[in-house]
Amino acid sequence: MRAQRTFVKRQPQLPLPPWVRGLVITLFSISITMLGLLLVTFLIGRVMPIDPVLAVVGERASQEQYDAVFKDLGLDKPLIVQFFYYVSDVLRGDFGQSLLTARPVADDIARVFPATFELATIGILLGCILGVPLGVIAAVRRGSWIDQIARVVALVGYSMPIFWLGLMGLLLFYGILGWVGGPGRQGIFYEDMIPSVTGMILIDSALARDWGAFWDAFSHIILPASLLGYYSLAYISRMTRSFMLEQLSAEYVTTARVKGMSEWAVIWGHAFKNIRVQLITVIALSYANLLEGSVLTEIIFSWPGIGSYITTALLSADMNAVLGGTVVVGLVFICLNVFSDLLYKFFDPRSK
Amino acid sequence: MSYFRKLMATAAMGVAVGVTALPVIAETPANMLVIANRIDDITTLDPAQSFEFAGSDVLRNVYGKLVNFDPNNLDAGYQPDLAESWTVSEDGKTITFTMREGVKFHSGNPVRAEDVAFSLKRVVLLNKTPSFIITQFGFTPENVDETIVVDGNTVSITTDKRYATSFVLNCLTATIGGVVDKELVMANEVDGDMGNTWLATNSAGSGPYSLASWKPKESVTLNANADYYGGAPAMKRVIVRHVQESATQRLMLERGDIDVARDLNPSDVEGVRAAEGVEILEEMRGRLMYIAASQKHPELSKPGVRQALKYLIDYEGMQNSFLKGAYVTHQNFLPKTYLGAVDENPFSLNLDKAKALLAEAGVDGMELTIGVREAQERLEIAQSLQNTFGQAGITVNLEVGTGKQILGKYRARELDIYLGAWGPDYPDPHTNAGTFAYNPDNSDAANATGLLAWRNSWDTGGLTEKTAAAVVEGDRSKRAEMYQGIQAQFRDTSPFAVMFQKVEQAGVADNIEGLNLGGAITAVSYWTVTK
User: Fold this and answer.
1) Listed residues A41, A64, A91: the one ending a domain
2) Separation of alpha carbons B487 and B222, rounded Å
């Protein structure tokens, strides 16, 4: 049978090397995404029925004081002008001043984001290290006791409110057993003792070679990180199981087994290799969720992260802080997407 | 497979050993006070601007004032602090303070009369929200150079008319009366802001503690001032940690990781009472819980309906159930312990009487909206009201929102009924009389959003004049009587139903002594604490 010939209209190409073209296109799409994100957040902030002026002046302010701050915040100008000023400030790296903390938003984010980053990273590592093997084993031993355990573990993770589980964890491991440090990032002995380099106390204390402070920080982070890790584990293990089941029922797996290949090679060498791209998406999404900040976990463990920072700011109409936080979260998502794309190319021969 | 198993086993062992080998320290150091508190309301630590509870707690310990309260004897009223003594002119308008000698700021600079004048003028010129506490005496940016005058070691302030001296001095004990170090503040001035930006996150005081750090929503750390004129505090360091959850605060207290837990809910208070090594410290605070009915509403503006609402509140039921221990019934706008405060609580839940009053007023069922912010105890009060009002044929819809949302509507006179709290701004009866019972111009155009009477469109029926008279009365006991009379009329005629007064119940380790939370009139004092 004669192959059908297809004609593809060639796009006019810029006289640039392919990698530069790729970079330009990526940067362009990132800029458009960020601008859209800023616009939407800005508009939501402005239509919310919360008065940002009251956040500054408080309940007792006179009308004159209220009007002065209304003007100071630029709220007397048309929305489009306010947005234009805001974007031009952001482009200069100036996110403005937070109304609630009396500091530049950039400084606040530099303080709260590392706290979330540290927590989320340990959480996702725990989630992956335990969740992926658990999912694979559950798929391979489908219907066995280990599959049932994995199912229960995931079900509890899905259905148990994090607030309750966090409090119970604190009660057991901190209150009763005394195995871990309490709420907060550090014990009082180490408060303000470690010079801040990265803002991540584990890394900063290691850099300072203060191992007492390191273990103290570790004892504070391990419980909330395990909790977040558990929730990631629940999701990752279920998704891994389902991806693996799909692969294990494929004909190439049967062929491999028929050809006498070892079970290890079939599972890890063939089936698992084929789910890596899907897994990356799942893990990246879980990680992104954790990096947004888990507000309830932060509240229970008095963890000064970006989730509660943005939430408090939103409820108090501290729009500079909300927009600054949103930009950071948006950037995190974009970075993770770009990173996932790179990994796809690495793992998926078709995209090479 | 074996490699994988080894890897997993190593990881599991690592986590297990790491966790079990963690050092846990279960007692705070002997010279350090560690407190768990909600401190997310702090937006600035400039005494000319700060107006929140947690901020007042910090600033009371950091700044000296002309006159101040002695935590060991709050009932004695204002006492000399940075001012050693004062005299009042014959016309009663000028008070001249003589400064205490030898007192130094944390920076080492001497505390001078000039610093006092600068601090008070700064309040007027910056014109931040709490500035009214000072400017209500007639100080304006135009006249401060003539009305606040330094002469050697004395500073004189001249008010626009004669006021009760106790009123002026009580106002100077408020946070805004904090004396700042002029040299240090002006060295950090940016764009003519008189150091406002810098002082938001730094301190320039002469009090028993200096500010080491404020990390928003995380912690406030104070270091003892070894040169404090009243003697170096026993607690060399005070750390106030932001801990949002009551249950978490309780756990930390029972574990010995903190000395004081300031935000325990009633069930955790009961838990702490049963625990060993900790106890509950109770103090009446100044915060009142009240409802107010808009007088723009055709039915609510009828005197009989206003009265009926006061008989439709289950004061006792709420006090003995979900508010147990945290609030006590109090139906007057002056908190207990204030000059002129009264104990009379004539209203109780009385459905028959309420129904009769409503019928007399010609009201046969109506629908009302109560605006309430999203806070547990307030929502519970709102639900109780919904229930009892419903029994008299009044359908209540709750409009629940954030504090800022509901407050915005309240200030715009848009709510039928507002359910909320009010805390006094300074320890003088005028602080509440001047907002609950004072409304010189009830028109929309007056826009007196700071006055509660105006927010509810209430023409006070003569109480405005009585309040204005009480604030200038020089005789203390006569002044107290005047406020008692104002409150009696207020209870009967106003659209406000004051319901409860706050009782703070703090969990405290039993080795802590000398902690004073400030009662109804001031903020917490750390410098008297010993272990």
Assistant:
1) A91
2) 41
